[in-house]
């Protein structure tokens, strides 16, 4: 489960071969013991529990980095090394 970014205490991971559970490109975000999955396509919350303010930060980051995230998704589902993505600033 590679960490691809870290900002404002939020850890962003993308799992290898993780296209079965949610069936669409997504990332996993962790913050203070909470974890949620977010769609890369539209930023929607797919599963989990996340503070609203932190979820908005993740969604803004997804919007900014959607192209890079989709490229990493293709690598992840093929079991290849992922590239880190710039944090939200």
TrEMBL record:
This is DUF4160 domain-containing protein. InterPro entries: DUF4160. It comes from the Bacteria.
């Amino acid at each position: 489960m590679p960490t691809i970014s870290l900002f404002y205490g939020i850890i962003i991971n993308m799992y290898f071969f993780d296209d079965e559970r949610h069936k669409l490109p997504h990332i996993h975000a962790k913050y203070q013991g909470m974890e949620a999955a977010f769609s890369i396509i539209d930023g929607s919350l797919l599963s989990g529990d996340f503070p609203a303010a932190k979820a908005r930060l993740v969604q803004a980051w997804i919007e900014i980095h959607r192209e890079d995230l989709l490229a990493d998704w293709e690598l992840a589902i093929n079991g290849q090394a992922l590239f880190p993505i710039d944090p939200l600033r």
